[in-house]
Each structure stands twice: as C-alpha cells, then as structure tokens.
Amino acid sequence: MSEDPTPVSDSPFRSEPSARDEAPQFVLPLVVRIEKAEPPARTDALETSARAVLTILADERSAGEGEWAGAMRDWQDARIRKVVRRARGAEWRRAEALPGITVTGKSAEVRVFPPVPLDGWPKDLAKLQVSGTDLDDPEPPVDADLAAPVLWLNPDLGMSAGKAMAQAGHAAQLAWWELSDEERTAWRDAGFPLAVRTAEAARWSELTGMGLPLVRDAGFTEIAPGSCTVVADHPALRREPHRSGRAASTRSE
User: Fold this and answer.
1) Exposed, middle or buried by CB within 10 Å (0-12, 13-18, 19+), for 189?
2) Helix (H, G, I), strand (E, B), or coil: what is residue 21?
3) Which residue, of 72, 208, 230, 237, has the fewest CB within 10 Å?
C-alpha cells in the first residue's frame, strides 16, 4: 500500500489534526507501470518516483502563472500527500493520455500528475489499484555514489514499494525546498541524479542527527505516526546551513 488518502478517522494510526489539516487537501498522483511479464525493479521504481516528483516541481507549468501553478501551490500549502497507484496495458495508456509527465528509469516508468483534490480524482486514475505495488530487486543495488544525492530509507521500517515510492518522493521534495535557486538549476540540468538506498542501522542514527531533511510520516497508512522514514542526503546540504527557513525535519504523509 502506498500513500492512500485514507480519512484520518479511519486510520489505525490516527494522529492529532494540525493547522495543515484545516486547509483544503490535495494529493499528488503518481502512477507506476507494472506489466505482469516485466515488472520494474523495486529500487529503480523508488528512484524514478523521486525524480518524477522533482520533475513536476521544476516544470515551468508549476510556477508563476503556469497551468498547474495554482494546484501546486494549494497542495504544498497543506500536507504534501502523494498516492502511488499501479497500471498496465490499457490502464497505462489511459493514464498517459491525461495531463502529466512520464519519467523513465532503467526498468521503471512513473507518470506524475498535477495535484487533485483529495476527493476529486480523474476517473481513469481513481479506478487504478493502490495495492499490488510490491516489487523486488533482481540483484542487490550497487553502493550509492556519495558524491550525488542519496535518499536513505529507515532500516527498521518495512514498507511496501508503493509506500516507499511516496516517501522517497517526499524526501526529494524536502531537499528541493532546502536548495538555492542555483543548486536547483544544477540538479535539474543534470537530470536529477539520485539514489535510494536502505541505510545500515549505525549510519541511520548518524544521518538523523545531521540536520538533513527528514521525513516524518503522519501515520495514515502502514506505519505509526511520527515514524522517521527517509533522510535526504544532498551534497549541497552537507556543505552549508539550510537557507530556506523551513524546518529540516518535516512531518508529511
């Protein structure tokens, strides 16, 4: 299960509402292509999902007077919810016909769409399944290049691929918020290189104390509220203090 917009009152991990819950709620839809014969590798799907979030954040249609700008602002002013659904065959073709951006990895294809109201999904996306996004890596991923951004997963949490894809997207977004305009441009122009890896226990403890962007889950699905899920380790954020004014540790769902 991924970041399904389960009503708070129905969640087994209900957390106390905050001011952000009072704002109109939007969600960023992500659809991963999972064909029966050739499913993507898990790590590649996580990395492609994170790059898809960055791609729509950087898109000119998301800024200023762009056609997606209003929805993007409304979404980011509330909780930065993301929901990952799966599609194949005709479902995928219908999803591709809707306004959005498809990002391709080594084996994964993820399409990201402009935010929609929590209860206002386009019908061709609303029909897609949330469950069934469990994926595997055919081979263990190679060690991450520490000179590039790495999104480190908490080794103590078991998350479905869909949930982890949404969490990786959260972490990439928090890193994006912390960067200067010049650093964002450089990352975008390089094609948003990044890796998603599970940290070793000792390394995780170190990472969470470095002041890097840290995702805390709101507890709507799968895991308990307040769980630390991902640390965004971007080289630029290791070198300099955060400049954005946002807290580095951000609770999201």
Assistant:
1) exposed
2) helix
3) 208
How many Cα atoms occupy the beta-carbon half-sphere of 161 within 13 Å? 28
Residue in the structure block whose two tokens are 């991924």: 2
**Helix/strand/coil (H, E, C) string of 215-250?**
EEECCCCCCCCCCEEEEEECHHHHHCCCCCCCCCEE
Q: Which amino acid appears at position 209 of this protein?
A: G
Distances (CA, A) of 242 to 8, 124, 238: 32, 40, 9
Closest CA to 111 of 27, 55, 173: 55
